[in-house]
Amino acid sequence: MIKLNEVLLSIINKDFKENELVTILELLVSELDIDTISEMARKENKSPNGINISKCYRKIKIGKQKFAVKGLRDSSVLPF
After folding, report:
1. Could you write out the DSSP letters of every residue in the chain?
2. CB within 8 A of 24, min separation 6: which ones?
3. Which terminal Cβ of the chain has fewer Cβ within 10 Å, N or C?
4. Residue 8 lies in a domain
5. pLDDT averaged per 10 residues in sequence order, the chain, 80 residues
6. pTM recorded for the entire structure
7. Whether residues 63 and 39 fall in one domain
């Protein structure tokens, strides 16, 4: 079984092709409850500002879009 550290180092060292990285990203997105702040607010019947300030969602930025991941608490400490 491949360990997380090995995969992360492989990504940093550019061992994967772009299409492989996109495949990994698509798989990850399908396994997470991730959506834009606005869409998460609609799904949760909350305001976008409520989602944005809540510590109950991890917020990440991809490109120019900010996303909320349900089920992960927002913290400034990286998981690795």
Report:
1. ---HHHHHHHHHTT-S-HHHHHHHHHHHHHHS-EEEHHHHHHHHT--HHHHHH-TTEEEEEETTEEEEEETS---SS---
2. 16
3. N
4. yes
5. 86 95 94 96 96 93 94 68
6. 0.77
7. yes
